Amino acid sequence: MPSNELIRSKLSDLPHKPGVYLMKDRFGTVIYVGKARDLRRRVSQYFHPSRRSGWDLKLNALVEAIYDLDTHQVRSEAEALLLEGKLIKEFKPRYNISFRDDKRFLLLKINLNDPIPRFSLTRIKQEDEARYFGPFASSGAVRRTLALARRKFHLRGCRPLTPNADDYKHCLYGNLKFCTAPCIGNVTREAYLAQVTAACEFLAGQTNEMRDELMVEMKRAAAALNFEKAAQLRDMIEDLKRTTEKTNKFERIPYTLPVAIDPAHDLEELQKVLGLAVLPKWIEGFDISNISGTFAVASMVKFVGGKPDRNGYRRFKMKTVIGQNDFACMAEAVRRRYSRLSRQSENLEVTDDGAGQEGDEGGAASEVGEGVEESGRFPDLILIDGGKGQLGAALEELEALGLGRLRVIGLAKEFEEIYVPGESEPIRLSHDTGALKLLQRVRDESHRFANTYNAQLRLRRISESLLDEFPGIGERRKSDLLKRFGSVQRLKRASYEEIAEVPGFGGKLAMEFKSWLDARSES
Q1: Which of 113, 373, 414, 466 sits a CA distance of 20 to 30 A from 191?
Q2: Please, is 211 exposed, middle or buried when counting C-beta atoms within 10 Å of its C-beta (0-12, 13-18, 19+)?
Q3: Where are the alpha helices (DSSP H) in 387-433?
Q4: pLDDT band per the 50, 70, 90 thresholds, residue 52
Q5: Rounded CA gap, 278 and 280, in Å?
Q6: Is 81 within 8 Å of 23 (Cβ atoms)?
Q7: How far is CA 49 from each of CA 44, 60, 169, rounded to the nearest angstrom?
C-alpha cells in the first residue's frame, strides 16, 4: 500500500464504477491520466507490492512520483475513453503516450439546409449550423452504423453538394436501390428530408425497433446453423449499441499551472547551480511548435520570482523559416524578441506591429502581444527548450545583437540535461531538486503556450477549409476570397454584390456561392 496518507485515504473511498484517474506529483502537475472499468480495482493495482517489485522501470518511476490523485466517475467505459483522450490532449502528461497527438474522435455531421443533405464523418465541430452526433469512441462502429442507417433509410452516400442527372447515371447507390435518388426527382425534397429526420432520430438513440429486428434475424440464422451470418448480425447489434449509447459532454477541468512550494528557495538553488552573479528573478523560456514544417510558431514565456507572469508572454509566427527547421525557428524567435528589447533599451521609437493580434489574415506574421517592457532591462536568465543545436542558434543571434553577456542555457527533454555555453558536458541534477523543477515548469509552460498557438492556427485553417467543399473552387479563388473578406465568418455576412466583386466570381457563380453559404448560415 502507498505510504502517502492522502492517497491511502482516497483509495478506500474509490467506487467500483467506470471513470478516469489523474496522477499528480508534489507540485500539482498531472503526470498520468488513465481510464478504468472499475476505478477502485484499477487504481489500487498501482500500489500493490507485487506490481512495484517488477521490472517495469516506467511504472516504478511513475508510482514514485505520485503525490496525489483525482478521479472522475462516468457512466460507461466508452465515456471513460472519451474523457481520457480529452484530458491527455489538455495536460500532455509525461507518462502518457497514447492520445498525445492532435487527432480527435469521429463525429457524424449533416447540414439540413443543403439542397440534398448527406451524412459525413468529421473530427472537428464547426460553427456552421450543421447537426453533429458524437463523439464516438469506436470509429469502426460508427462507420458500420452509418452504412446500416443509409441502407435502412435509403439515404445518399455520394459526395457532390447537389447531385444531378449526370451523376445519377453512374450512381451505384441509386442503381442498387439503397438511395431514393432525390437528385432526379424520384422523391420530393420534403419526402427526402423526412427520411433524413428519421435517420437523425435513429442516430440519437431511437434504435429499439431495428435492434429487435436484428435480434430476430440473428436467432433465425443461428437456428438454421448459419453461424457466420449470426455472428455478423451480433456484431451489428453491438456496433449499434456502442454508437447510439448516450455519452456526457465534458467541460474543461479547472487545473492551474503548478507552482513551487518554495519559489525563493528554488531560485537560490538555481543561482548556485549555474553560478549566476544575480538571483534569476526574471526568466524567459522559448519553445518551437510545428507539424511537418507547417504552422511553425515559437513561444516565449516570462517567469518573475519563480512564478508565471502571463502579461509578459509572447508568441511568434515564423516569417523567414521554410520547412521544418527548429534551429532556424529558434534563431528567428530570439532575434525578434531581443532586437525589440534592444531598441527599447536604447530609447528608440518602436513601431508596435500587430500588438495583441495573431498576425495578418493574409498570412504576414507578426510578433504577438509585444508591449513596452521595462526600459533598459533584460532577463536574468534565458531558457531554450533543446540541446546544443537550439542553444547554439540562440547564442549566435544574441552575439550578433551585441547581447552575448546575457546568460542562456538549454534544457534537453530526454534526460533533463542542462546545457551551458562553454561547457562540454551537460549538468545533470537530481529530479527532486527545486532548481530543476523550476526549469521544468518554465520549459513545460513555454511548450504548452507554443502548442496552443499552433492549434489555434490549425483550427483557423480547418475553418477556412469549409470553402473546399464548394464544387469548382480552387486555391486561387479561395485565397482571393479570404484576402478580400479576411475570414469565413465575414464572408458569410457578405452580400451577393460584394462576392461578385472578387476576381473569378461572375454573376452566376457568385449567386450559387452565396446560396451555398446561406445554407450553412441559416439555423
Answers
A1: 466
A2: middle
A3: 388-400
A4: low
A5: 6
A6: no
A7: 10, 11, 69
Q: Quick one: DSSP state of residue 182?
A: G
Lowest mean pLDDT among 47-51, 186-190, 414-418: 47-51
For 317, the enclosing helix (H) or strand (E) is: strand 314-317
Task: Collect all residues with Cβ–Cβ distance below 8 Å to 187 and sequence separation of at least 6.
Answer: 180, 181
**Reported confidence tier of residue 55, pLDDT bands at 50, 70, 90:** low
Amino acid making up residue 443? R
**SS3 state at 368:** strand
Q: What is the DSSP letter of 116?
A: S
Pick the CATH number of 263-461 from 3.30.420.340, 3.40.1000.10, 1.10.3080.10, 3.10.520.10: 3.30.420.340
Q: Outline where DSSP puts E strands in 37-172.
A: 68-73, 106-110, 120-122, 131-136
Q: Sign (positive/negative) of CA torsion 205, 208, 213, 217?
A: positive
Are 253 and 19 in contact, with CB atoms under 8 Å apart? no
297-340, pLDDT tens digit by residue? 899 999 999 988 888 999 998 888 877 788 999 999 999 999 98
Three-class SS state of 35: strand
- Beta bridge partners, 121, equal 108
1 vs 123: which has the higher pLDDT: 123
Return d(Cα 244, Cα 142) in angstroms, integer: 9
- Report pLDDT for 465: 56
Q: Is the dihedral of CA 166, 171, 175, 178 positive or negative?
A: negative
> How far is 283 from 232, CA to CA, in rounded Å?
61
Number of helices and strands in the chain (H, E):
19, 15
CATH of 5-91 given 3.30.70.940, 3.40.1110.10, 3.20.20.140, 3.40.1440.10: 3.40.1440.10
Paired strand residues for 382: 284, 408
Provide the 3-class DSSP secondary structure of residue 164: coil
- Mean pLDDT within 495-506: 80
Question: Cα dihedral sign for 307, 309, 312, 315?
Answer: positive
- Residue 268, helix vs strand vs coil: helix
Q: For the chain, what are the domain ranges?
A: 5-91, 106-244, 263-461, 470-519
The three three-digit cell numbers of residue 65, written as one number? 512520483
Residue 409 pairs in a beta bridge with 383
pLDDT in tens, 120-134: 888 777 767 788 887
CATH homologous superfamily of 470-519: 5' to 3' exonuclease, C-terminal subdomain (1.10.150.20)
pLDDT tens sequence across 61-110:
888 888 888 888 887 777 787 788 778 877 778 888 765 555 567 788 88
Kindly report whether the global pTM for this prediction surpasses the value 0.85. Answer: no
How far, in Å, CA of 314 to CA of 445, rounded? 12
Helix axes 326-345, 388-400, angle to 10 degrees: 30
